[in-house]
Amino acid sequence: MNQSPLILSTSAIEKQMKIMQGLVSGMSLEGVLNLVLQGLFERFPDCIAGIWITEKERKPTVLSLLASIQPTSCCLTSITVQTGVYKVNEHDFEESVYLLLRENFYQCGMNSVEYVTILDTKSKAVGVLGIALPKSDISLAIKSLFLQSYTQVAGLAIEKENSNEENHFLAYYDYLTEIPNRRFFQRELSKQISDAMQSQHPLSLVLLDLNNFKYVNDTFGHAAGDEVLQTIAQRIVTMLDYQYTVARLGGDEFAFLFANMTGLQAYNRINLILETIKHPIVVQGNKIIMMASAGIVQCPLHGTTQDTLLRYADINLYEAKQSSQFCIKLYN
Question: What's the whole-model pTM score?
Fold first, then answer.
């Protein structure tokens, strides 16, 4: 006789304890969600299940499959939703989302499919749990009871992960431009100096300052100044490869780290960036043309500590801003 699904086995209880321990100990989100599905598998050993979470700020909306229990013959996948994900004023997914998820299970030959929206503690939909079962005598009410309890834990795990990501962003990224901030840059500079000393490969540090930014703020207002900074940051990011670092140190000052690049190579790269910055920016109907200056130093040629490199780069930046002949100064 099959065990009643309302009675938890010892292994199921142990699984729940592992889930809670994972939440408390800082286990990865993927690890916790896999434990959640393993807990479901303890109750429904013939099931196929998956947990999809919404990727923030993605248009169209993407639901990523982050955890699953499925045979090798099955292929549950992430999905892309062209329409809105959530119904207005309801904590449920649009029918289009359910249809796309249901197709995942149909391809596995499973027709009895249940879905439960995963909510965080603020009742915001953050994902969905789907489970497919072969023909079973377990009532829908009992299945829903178990799904709800597991999705509550999944919701806590996803909310904790989102909170960690938000806290990390606030700590290490500039809120206005969404690029790394001074704190991130200082940590990265220390690491890259150490890497350069060990590998004997050059590291170039660049400080860049906008020449006429105060005029923009005074003439057009701070909202216009913020828009200019955002536009310039976006232009810079599009011109950098992923292995290079750019950060906003504050105000209109940016800093760059070019690993495995000499000062002269960095000079050529920054020159291209300065040309891009010069392109007109239309703000509130006004065409604004920005100019910038830069100071460059190379590690270990010009120094092997943060203070030394930053000091010399700042000196070069100052000389570049004062010069009428050049806008970039390479320390020599």
Answer: 0.61
